Amino acid sequence: MAPPIPVGLGMGNALFFVVAISAALYLAYRWALPKPIPGVPYDESARNNILGNLPELVTMLRDTGKTRPFFIRHPQRHQSALTQVWMRPLQKPSLILADFRESQDILLRRTREFDRGTWNTDAFNGVVPNHHISMPSADPRFKGNRELVRDLMTPNFLHEVSVPQIYAKTMALVDLWSLKAELGEGRPFNARRDIFDAAIDIINAAAFGLDDDQSTVKNQLDHLLSKPELRPTPNADGSVMFPELPTLPTIVAIEEIGNHLGEQFKSPFPRLSHRFQMWKSPTLAKSVARKDEFLRDEINKAVVRLRKGESGTRSAMDHILQREMNAAEKAGREPVFHSHRIHDELFGYIVAGHDTSSTALAWMVKNIADHPEAQTKLRSALRAAYSDAYAKGEQPSVVELWKTQVPYLDAVLEESLRCNGPIPVTLREALVNTEVLGHKIPKGTKIFMVSEGPGYQSPPIPVLESARSPSSRDKNLYGSWDPSDMHLFNPERWLKTDEKGNVVYDAQSGPIMAFSLGPRGCFGRRLAYLEVRIVLALLVWNFEFHKLSDGLSSRDSYDSITTNPHRCYVSLTKVT
Ligand code: HEM
Fold first, then answer.
1. Residue closest by Cα to atom 30 of ligand 1
2. Which of 39, 329, 460, 467 could form a disulfide with 455 if both were Cys (CB 3.0 to 4.6 A apart)?
């Protein structure tokens, strides 16, 4: 028989275990608590919570559908241009930088110390893993991918191939809105879908040279024209609603994938979240398959066309395929048209180019309706610049639109981007141990650079000159905004008089980062400017945008890939 266990020893053991486990748990809790970077302000509540700032972000997302305002308010909360937050449990702190000069310096000059952050690359990785947007700059594939698409943003390519496509698709929107203005007798209607569709027609046409039967706006127009008896339905808020054709399956797929990407930006674990959504949502998986099929079909059609030597280059796709044909011929191999790289670079062009431009245009339309004086001035500037077309009662031609400088047009669109930039936060990650505003930060630290709030639309938070990095001292390439009016929409701030007495547009009048800066800034910036310039010019040339009631002109927004207006209504009168 086994001897009885002495009671005193059993109690002692149990007590020892309880104390040891409690101590271990306490030590684990202390270890898991966020560790701040010395001297950089943070929220005490986040510092004492193993989840850091995550609970606040989750609450904000649940209540408002947004997370970006958190990044913009945090520096204001602490009145510090540099603050720190914890976005995930057990993670090093991330920094928020609300200072244009230091951001500009990091993006433009400190590219050996900072690169595109993994959160951003991870967000795109699920859908377009072989597009350069999903790659750090040191990825061995990055250079080759950029080389493949290099020519798409050259002035020659843009003017010869992309601009005619943009012009044609914008004129379809003008025709659709002319009909809607007439049928609705000038009453407001929701313009968000039309702008979304026009932007997708434009980017699809620039990417694939798609014909009119694939144009959503043209299809809507034909649908309305085919029913002359049709009248819009009035809504209780004074607006009217037009019947809409079901969206084409490819556009539905692009839209669903775009929305899915937008959700990844809000997730603390984008890669995991992508896999989970692909498993959970049969429609998402179907949309991804539909997108692959669409790319295969378009590439196959283009290859047949190009091999026959038909009709030259009419899209970004044609150009990429022609490059592959030439490279294969030079290397004595068969061309590979259906590589992951070509598929993803093409689809990434649409994903990166559509949502951004569509959102920028939606805010522009709202801003010109909200500021009738600026709108009238812009229309006069356009009529003076395209005086022949105005005298003949015609549309300005495609050549006039890209050749003639209209400083006030550039000023209006830049002011809209300053006030309502579609992407108000840019992310970078430290590649080495380094310093920001005098604080030592370890390799791997994420840094969120905000381009809304202090320094952009409200007075900057002061920064000691001695705290700035040596490369940023005395190297501010931009002017500064008058603190008394930087919260206002005022296109004039972008204009100056040159030495010959001409009023000119100055792109460096003051802080703006709508397209980010430096080698990993927006790849499509030139195309985007051409697009918004042509669309805005043709819309203001053709329509007067009336000011709307407070409800219809609300400036509430929601976050997706971009920060979108909840409401984008227009009330139009045809003017020419
Ligand atoms: C008004 C329209 C647009 C805005 C406001 C915009 C803004 C931006 C911003 C803020 C970034 C992030 C840059 C960074 O992390 O530093 C970006 C990246 C990018 N944009 Fe745009 N964009 C616009 C239109 C376009 C268009 C039309 C295209 C192409 C067709 C495009 C292609 C890209 C690509 C490929 C990247 C990633 C570049 C890289 O990873 O190196 N964008 N854009």
1. 353
2. 460
Q: Whose CA is nearest to atom 35 of ligand 1?
A: 523
Please give the pLDDT value at position 366. Answer: 98
CATH, residue 289: 1.10.630.10
How many other β-carbons are positioned within 10 Å of the β-carbon of residue 427? 20
Do residue 414 and residue 326 come from a single domain?
A: yes
Would you say the CB of residue 132 lies under 6 angstroms from ligand 1?
A: yes
For residue 175, being part of any structural domain is answered with yes
- Which residue, by CA, sits nearest to atom 37 of ligand 1? 133
Same domain, residue pair 101 and 238: no
Q: Does 295 fall in a domain?
A: yes
Residues 344, 443 share a domain: no
Q: Is the CB of 364 under 6 A from ligand 1?
A: no
Residues 263 and 372 occupy one common structural domain? yes
Q: Are residues 416 and 430 in the same domain?
A: no
Query: Which pair of structure tokens corresponds to residue 315?
Result: 């899209």
Six token digits for residue 338: 């259906």
- C-alpha 74/C-alpha 213 separation (Å) is 48
Contact 550, 58 (CB under 8 A): no
Would you say how long the chain is, in residues?
A: 576
Q: How many CA within 13 A on the CB side of residue 71?
A: 24
User: Per the annotation, does 419 bind a ligand?
Assistant: no
Evaluate whether residue 7 is within a structural domain. Answer: no
The finding on whether 520 has its CB within 6 A of some atom of ligand 1 is yes
* Same domain membership, residue 528 and residue 445: no
Same-domain pairing of 184 and 109: no
Atom 27 (ligand 1): residue with closest C-alpha?
A: 353
Among 522, 531, 534, 535, which is best to mutate for testing ligand 1, by the most ligand atoms less than 8 A from CB? 522
CB proximity list for 253: less than 8 A, separation 6 or greater: 286, 287, 288, 290, 291, 294
Q: Give the distance (Å) from ligand 1 centre to CA of residue 202.
A: 16
User: DSSP character for 338?
Assistant: T
Domain, as residue range, for 64: 44-136+426-467
**Helical (H) or strand (E) element with 448:** strand 446-450
3-state secondary structure string, 42-92? CCHHHHCCCCCCHHHHHHHHHHHCCCHHHHHHHHHHHCCCEEEECCCCCCC
Residues of the chain below pLDDT 50: 1-2, 5
> Three-state DSSP class for 347?
helix
Degrees (nearest 5) of the Cα angle 165, 169, 173? 165
- Which of 133, 429, 512, 515 best tests ligand 1's pocket when mutated (most atoms within 8 Å of CB)? 515
Q: Which of 438, 467, 496 is the last residue of a domain?
A: 467
Name the residue among 242, 167, 238 with its Cα closest to residue 198: 167
In this structure, is residue 1 part of a structural domain? Answer: no
Amino acid at 481: W
- What's the total number of domains in the chain? 2
Looking at 410, 435, 467, the residue that finishes a domain is 467
Note whether ipTM > 0.90 here: yes
Q: Are residues 355 and 488 in the same domain?
A: yes
